[in-house]
Amino acid sequence: MSKPPILFVHGAWVNGRCWDSFRGRYAARGYTCHAPSWPHDERPVEELRASPDPALAGVGIGEIVAHYKAKAEELGGKPILIGHSFGGLFVQRLVSMGLGCAAVAIDSAPPFGVLPSFDALRAAFPVIKVPGHWKKVLTMSEDDFGATFANGVPPEGRAAAYAQYVVPTPGRVYAQATWSPKLVKVDFKKQDRCPLLLVAGGEDKTISPSMNRANHGKYVAGPVTDFHEFAGRSHFLIAEPGWEEVADHVIDWVEAQLA
């Protein structure tokens, strides 16, 4: 029996290359993996940093979710869905649409009804303090990357990780997450959906573990909805040291559901 394909969904400040390690590990287990980037982000990291497409400023949550919905439907509508950060929220939205055979949301941005923690507000402040951020393309500073996004990466490795992964992102997604609840609404009561796993990093300073637990707690009884927290891991637990444990836990959980 063939294995379903995997569709990865990345979050803000990175592009699809952030899944390269997961893709290689899962390919070795016989999976076909797809990690498309957000619209206008399908170029090497170096090019995106040097010359972001001005059209990126107009990309919002609706466009991104529609982009991945189309990708999922191209794969037959029932791939394994794995998302990180904003990508985790987008995966939850896709699950609400009836897509996916199993889904994982890692350090998911909060859907409507889950309140941000103080740490989350502090991590978002460099974006929301920028005048007109909702119509601009923004870049995360190396200091912010190390303090709130990749605090699990050893200090001596943060500059290299920043250079390898960080790209400009549209401030529009942050504005819409705050002011457009319909775009971040999840159907927590949907009964005919696939199994869902929510994963948290215990030292995540962008999406606090408490937010992930609250997110998990919103789902009503019915389809499988599991939660796992990795102690000592940051928001960037998909690419920081020890990512292998995260990757293996995720795919082992998926295979248990599909069995």
What does this structure look like?
There is one protein chain. The chain has 259 residues and is of the alpha/beta class. The chain is 39% helix and 12% strand. It contains ten helices and eight strands. The chain has a six-stranded parallel beta sheet with strand order 2-1-3-4-7-8, with helices on both faces. A two-stranded antiparallel ribbon has the order 5-6. The N and C termini lie close together (11 Å).
Gist?
The protein is an alpha/beta fold and 259 residues long.
What share of the residues does DSSP label as strand, in percent?
A: 5-15%
Task: Tell me the number of helical segments per DSSP (H or I, 4 or more residues long).
Answer: 10
What's the number of extended β-strand segments? Answer: 8
Q: What strand line-up does the widest sheet have?
A: 2-1-3-4-7-8
Secondary-structure blueprint:
Blueprint: E1 6-9, H1 20-27, E2 33-34, H2 45-50, H3 61-74, E3 80-84, H4 86-96, E4 102-106, H5 118-128, E5 137-138, H6 142-149, H7 155-165, E6 169-170, H8 172-179, E7 196-201, H9 209-217, E8 225-230, H10 243-258
Parallel strand pairs: 1-2, 1-3, 3-4, 4-7, 7-8
Antiparallel strand pairs: 5-6
Helix pairs in contact: 1-10, 3-4
